[in-house]
Each structure stands twice: as structure tokens, then as C-alpha cells.
Amino acid sequence: MDAISHEAVEGALRRADAAGRATARALLRRAAGVLAPGSAEAADPAEVLCRAAAVSEELRAELARWIGAAAGAGSHGNTIVGGDHHAGIVQAHTVGEIHWHTAAPPSMALPTPRQLIAAPRRLSGRTRELAELDTMWQGGGQREGPLVAVVNGPAGVGKTALAAHWLRSVAADFPDGQLFADLRGHAPEGPVGPPESLAMFLRAFGLTAIPPDPAERAALWRSVTAGRRLLVMLDNALSAAQVRPLLPGSGQSIVVITSRRRLTGLGLEGAVFHPLGVLDAEASAEILAQRVGASRTAAEPAAVRRVVDRCGGLALAVCVAAARMAARPGQPLAATAEALDHGAHRLAELRIGEEAAVRSALDASYRQLPPDAAALYRLLGVLPFVELTLPVVAAATGRDEAAADRLIEVLAEASLLEEPAAGRHRFHDLIRLHARGLAEVHDPDAIRTAAVRRALEWYLATATAAEALVSPNHRVLDRDYEELSPDAGLRFPDQRGALAWLAAEQHHLMTALRTAAALGWNGLCWQLADAMWPLWLRLRPYDLWVEAHRLGLAAARRDSSLPGELRMLTDGGAGLRNGGRPDEAVKSFGEALELARTVGDRRVEAQALHGLGQSHYLAGRPDEAAGFFRRALRLREEIGYARGAALSRISLGDTMRSVGRPEEAAEELRRARTELLALPDPYEASRALALLGRALGEAGRTGPAERCLREAAEEFRTGGSAHWEAYSLEMLGVVLQRAGRPDDARRAFERSLALYEGAGAPDAARLAARLAPPAPGTESGTAPAPGSGPGRAPGAGTS
């Protein structure tokens, strides 16, 4: 490679995504082998360029220019043309051109996740295991389901590093997505259930409406992944049952699972098992040389042998010992060997008992920490969260962020903390257990308890700030803080930022809520559930919604908080209703109604009546629903709650339409629209307009119905509400179909279907069936059944 081309490629490499640089540097070696077919690094130029494209188009272009120019100067004058991130068919020979024929992209334009975690650039002592994985992949052949590999072995042996390293080496051949999930099989708070992991994966593809039913969620996952070439890494699995629902629905995908257990049950899915043992002495010494420096290890071979022996081939222990030595360049390696000797009798048991060796290595590393870093290490071990951000660490430990950041860096340098993503840190689960054990020995219970309380209150303060910004009408109940001030949490510039934080932190928020419940911090528990209202309303994680309010209701009752109990009953009832459990919702709203009457809270009484109406409607009881809506409407008008009255009027109108009284429905909906525009509440006013268009269409008034539905669709498009835009377009299609305009109707249905699919809405299946040719003797053009469409129940907005 000439100097100019080398500089160009290096420049492209520096501008590539940081996560792809290791892959890119490997490509440089393989590109050099293109013109030397007999060399060990020989490679097909098409393969080199395909892999380069996955890192950066600029890198691919520079490599293409270099390979083409070098080949022309050599003998055959080949040129490289085209290129794509999708795999294609390559026609190549020693003369002529290389043509790229790329496959069409999938029909559904979704984001392409790139979630693989960082991996070591070199993986010592694993040549055989990597070759076995290569053989498994290359010999996979045609299959119905994904290729499944299980890498199992004791904790700390290097399963995750092996899996991540190998997956990154083949990632360029899987352009449709690379997914990662830590299943936390041995975490103290318990493993992650398949529904939570499926929700995370579906959101990675841009889907926002996640079905509440686990089976429906798994079916949607298989549909989204069908025909796609994906890599999936499932780390720290506990059982085959935890993994099975997460397998994609494509025979072109690879799933690699790491686990301390054998997971033999996955043999039913044709899994290939790769047990991983400890490293041999040579590989362990090589890791030390890489991380400490070859000159230092060569100068003290006896000390290296002692350290290798004490670490027992456990990759985690070797890496921790190496970090300790690297951090002290002026200290003899024998000092580390001597430190490890303090646990020699336990280290000798490493080969059959994994924790003793890790504890010994971690003890030696811990003893070298400065006192303030050691204190941080211990306190982080008692926090219940899998990952930690700097603001949480600062709040939990009572330090400012600059000081906390400095100490986090000390722990990271000692390989005691990992950084799986920018700004996020986590312990290996065994290291966390080690830190927690030290805290129980060295830190009084009051100090440990205060640290946990501060971390949970930080989440409460930040969620409350998000609630105040996104749902100000809901933010009315008090918050109780013992350790922090109410303004201790984050502040957000806009609603988008607040919702993004809630989405990213929802599992940590749930961990905080569960921890508060377990520790008997009752006010903190129900207030967290209350503060997460924008998460429940906008992102709709129904299973978490229901669980949070079940725990919150019990806590509010233990706390003797009537406002908290009322809120948990009404908001929890909304979760049950929207999650497809209307009869349970009726019970929850009924309890709220009785309690509200007892304490004389007429506003909550009206809210409970409205919720009962929605629940009965969803359960297929429209006459009962209408009665509850009328009672809610009268009460809201009496107490002067104009917005609530308009929402009850929307629900009443749509219920009347559903029982064949569209003209009366239209009158209620027109009035609701006028009242909501006057408030103003544009989102709810647009919902009233869409339902008005549907009612007018069922009354046979095609022109006004079409105008209402087109206007509503545009208002929802501008406001960013894809569900209701899709609903308005679907109803427009129904109106146009009934009016004898099938081509216009089909265009409206197709636009609606694209929006439903993009949001992962269950309505997509219904609409796809509508677009299919009707079977003989069937009728097309019917509207959705009662209770279907966005929100499922009429007026299912915030009330």
C-alpha cells in the first residue's frame, strides 16, 4: 500500500464509528492479502469491501480505490464497482469487473439497530473456540429457524468476551440488525423476563406500541424479524425458557447465548453447544504481556508464573490482576504475586469453585484502591441497579459529579467497573457481589441504607420533573424526600428529552419502585408509580404499568395515604383497561368510586365513573358504558371541570355511534370539539374530529365525513400521533369505500397500514386483511369493532 493511499485509508478509519475501528483495522490486513493469494491474510476483495461497508462507506471507498489501483498496476486491471450494506451476489475472477447485485431492502422501513457490545481486539487462548464457531456458521446451511449457539461455562471464564469478539468478526454479513440483551440470569434482583427483553428489541426497531400479551409480543417479534439477517447476543441467560421467546423468526440469523448453565433444553431448537473452560497458562501469560507490557513480563517470568497460577485460568481474575500491575508501572510484578498469595489456599480451589479465585483477585485489587475509591466501590455494590450513570452515583454517595466521576475512573482503570455504553457503568455480577460483601462488613447499616434511599429519591425527583413537563395536569400530588431536595434530579429542555429519559430508564425506575416496596418505603413506592405517568400513557408498557400500580396500591394503603390510594386505583385501572383486562379495571374503578365518595372527592369520583364507562365499553357493554359516561359528564359540569366534561362527551358520543345512533353521536362530538379547541387542547380536539368523521360516515353523510377525517389525519400528522393518524385514514377509507370510490379507499387504507405497521400496532393485521381480496360471499368495508383502534376504548385519553 503506497503512503498516500495508506493515509487516506487511515483517515477514513479515524472518521469511522468508534465501535467499528477494530473491524476496520482487521480489514486493512485482509485487504493487503487480496493481491497475495498465497498469503495467510489472503481475502476475496469483494468480501473485504462488504465488511468495510458495514463500518463506513468512506472506508469502503478508500479500500476500493486502493485495491483497484494496486490490481491495475499489478496485472489484471480489476475494478471494484458499487457496494451496499446489504449482502449480495458477487461475480469475480482474475480479470474483468466485480459486479454487486444487492437484494431489495425489507418492505418495512425500520431502524437498523447496532447494539453489539465492545469486544477485545485480540482474544488470547481461544483459537480453537473461534474456529469452532466459524465452522458452525459456515456449515449452517438452509434451516427454518435461526442458528443458535450456546457458550456456557463458569462465571468469569470469558464467555461474554468470546461471544462479542466472534460476533463482531462476522457482523458485516448481517446488515439488518445486531441486537444485545443482558438477561441477568444471576442478578440479585432476579432475571429479566422474556416480555421485557422483547419490548426492548421491538423498540430498537422503532416500534412504539408494544402488545401487552407476552404471546402476542413474541409473535410480533417473529414477524418483524422474518426474512432479516440478524445477529442476536443474549448474555447471562438463566434457562432455555427465558431464551426461547427471544429467537428471531428468520433462518438467516444467528443467536449466540452465554450462560453459566448448559441450557440443554435449547437442543430442541437445534442449538450448538460450546462449553468454555479456563485459559491455559500460556494464554494467561499472553494477556498479562498485552496489558502490562512484554518487557515487564519478560523481566520477571517467575512472578508471571505465580500470578498465572494464582488466577487459575479464570479470564476475569487474570484481567483484574493485569490491571493492578499496569496501574503501577514502577512496582515489581512480584508485589502482585505476593498480594495474591494471601488467598493461595482459596485460589487452589479455583478449578472447582469459581468465586474463591475471583474474590482473591478482587481482594488484592481492592486493597490497592485509595480510601475514597474503596468507599465508592463498596457503596455501589449495595445499589440495586444493573447499570449506573454519573448523576445516580453522585446522588447515592453524596458527592458532586466531578468527584464521583474521578472515582468512577479509578474503578474503571482497575477493571472493577465496565462501561458498556458512553456514560453508563456496571459491575460484572461477581464483582458486584464482592463489593456488596465488603460493604456489609465495613459500612454500618445506616450508611448503606442512606445510599440506597438517595439513589431511589434521585429517580423519584427526575421522574417527577419529567411528569411536570409532559403531563402537567397529572402532577398534583405531594412528594416526600428524606435524603435529597426535590430539585435534586435532572431537568429536561423539552418533552422529547423527558420521554427519551423515561424510555431509557424504565427498567431502572421499576427496580427503584420494587426496591422501595421491598424495603417498606411506602410513600416512595407509590409516588414513583405516580411520577411515571407519562411513561405509562405515552409508551404503554402495559405489564410494567399494571405491576407498578399493584405494588403502589399496597404501599399507599400501608402508608394510609388516601390521595395515593385513589391515584393508584384510577391510574392502575387505566393500565388494566388499556392492557386488555376490562373486568379487572371495572373492579379497580369501582373501588376508587366508593373511596372517592367516602372522602368527598368529587373530581376523583367523576374520573372513576368515566373509567367505569371506558371499561364497560371495552368489555362489550355499550349501554352500561353510556350510563357511566352521562353520570361522569354531569358531575364534571357541576364541579366546573371543563376538560374532563369534554372528554366524557367524546366517550358518550362514540358509544352512541356504536349502538346505531350516529346523528346523536355527531352532535355530542361537535360540541366536544368546540369545547376542547376553546381550552385549548388540540390533541383531544383532533380525536373528537376523527370520531365525528366516523359518525357522519355511518350516518351516510359522505362529504362532511371525508372533510372531517382528512382534516383530523393532517392534525395528527402535524402533532406526531401516528396511531390516530392511521385510525383517521382507515375511517376515511371506509367512508370512500361505501361511497363507491374503491381506488381512493385503497390509497387511504395503504397509508393507514404503513402507519400501523411502523408503530407495531395490532390494528395492522385487521387492516391487512381488509386490503386482501374478499372471499366469495363475504362483505368488505366494515369499520373496526367497538373497542378497537387507538386507545381501544372511546375517550381513552387522559381524563
Automatic annotation (TrEMBL):
Biased composition (Gly residues): 788-799
Example GO molecular function: ATP binding
Pfam families reported in the protein's UniProt record: TPR_12
The entry's keywords: ATP-binding, Nucleotide-binding, TPR repeat
Region (Disordered): 770-799
SMART domains: TPR
TPR repeats: from-to residues: 606-639
Superkingdom of the organism of origin: Bacteria
Organism per entry: Streptomyces polygonati
Name the UniProt record assigns to this protein: ATP-binding protein
Entries under InterPro entries matching the protein: P-loop_NTPase, TPR-like_helical_dom_sf, TPR_rpt
